[in-house]
Amino acid sequence: MKIVAADWLPYALPLMRPWQTSQGEFNERQGRLLRLQSADGLTGWGDCAPLPEFGISEDAATAFAEECAHLDLIAQQAGLPLNAWLSGEPPVGNLTVNRNFGPILKCSVEALADAAEAGFSVLKFKVGVASIDDEIAALHQLGKSLPIGLQLRLDANRAWNFADAQHFIAACASLPVEGLEEPLAEPTPDLLQKLQSTAAFPLAIDESVHLIDADFFRHPPVRRIVIKPARHGGLLASVELALRARAAGIEVVVTSSLESACGLLACAHLAAAAAPDAVHGLATADWFADDTGSTPTIVGGRLQLPTSLGLGFQTFKP
């Protein structure tokens, strides 16, 4: 394939509300789109959006954007949507996604009802950002008003020591918790395995990617991993990681890193290729007050993938 033109389009997108991380809040997402044009008139897109809080360096984000733009072109030439090219299977039309609410103390009973009415089955909350007992009390209070069938996905962003994590997990025993991400401030395989043995629901690692080695898959300390493809440098490396995890009996969830519409689509294609039956963290477009292009719609709690060839990204920029 001959590339005849390449350029970067920087963006700075305001958020509708602050995004909470373990390092604090931010109100704007910055990045740049890569546009490649081939000799046969095709355009490939990639999204470079570094975020140190998510473990996504400038180099990893750039590699993700470059690979994605090339794979977009390759899939278009092959006459396939990107997820079908990645998996070798028929295209996936939609994916179940969770709704993301941010910190647990900021959620209202009305928001739970709205999520249920919109068709979501899993609601994600940040924990570990306030007093652990206040957050446990808030969870139990919300649990009393939780519509039937809804489950809670929690993310502690490495907030707690082992004793606090044990306390929190024990306090969740009567709640419909679907999973808990990154409970330990200083995770080790042994500590995570001990915690997982006490939890009825999956524990997950996300930013603790340094724990993933050959021993991790031989003796999994947790039941789930969260994959952000930009952190792993690309879609192909992420597919390989997902296959190794699933072969070891570990659940795979793909989440965006709050990239723009372009990066979100890439994450969705990865999820469709690697774990089409999971509930993914891809309902993030509504956090943006503005975006780089058209975003996938969510209907009944399911993200609708484009049926066009390749990535299917349509930019608003000229």
Q: What topology does this entry show?
A:
Layout: E1 3-21, E2 24-38, E3 43-48, H1 58-78, H2 82-87, E4 94-103, H3 109-117, E5 122-126, H4 132-145, E6 151-155, H5 162-171, E7 177-181, H6 189-198, E8 203-205, H7 214-218, E9 224-227, H8 235-247, E10 251-254, H9 261-274, E11 279-283, E12 298-299, E13 302-304
Helix pairs in contact: 8-9
- In CATH, the architecture of the largest domain is Alpha-Beta Barrel
Q: Kindly estimate the percentage of residues that lie in beta strands according to DSSP.
A: 25-35%
> Mind telling me the C-alpha Rg?
19 Å
Shape: globular
Tell me the domain tally.
2
CATH topology of the largest domain: the name is TIM Barrel
Terminal-residue CA separation: 24 Å
How would you classify the helix and strand content by structural class? alpha/beta
Overview of this structure, please?
The protein has 2 domains: 3-79, Enolase-like, N-terminal domain (Enolase-like, domain 1); 86-304, TIM Barrel (Alpha-Beta Barrel), CATH 3.20.20.120. The chain has 318 residues and is α/β, with parallel strands linked by helices. It starts with a strand and ends in a 14-residue tail after the last strand. Strands 4, 5, 6, 7, 8, 9, 10, 11, 12 and 13 form a 10-stranded mixed sheet that branches. The model has no long low-confidence stretch (mean pLDDT 94). α8 packs parallel to α9. A hairpin with a 2-residue loop joins β12 and β13 (302-304). It has helices at 58-78, 82-87, 109-117, 132-145, 162-171, 189-198, 214-218, 235-247, 261-274, and strands at 3-21, 24-38, 43-48, 94-103, 122-126, 151-155, 177-181, 203-205, 224-227, 251-254, 279-283, 298-299, 302-304. The protein is built from 9 helices and 13 strands. The radius of gyration is 19 Å and the shape is globular.
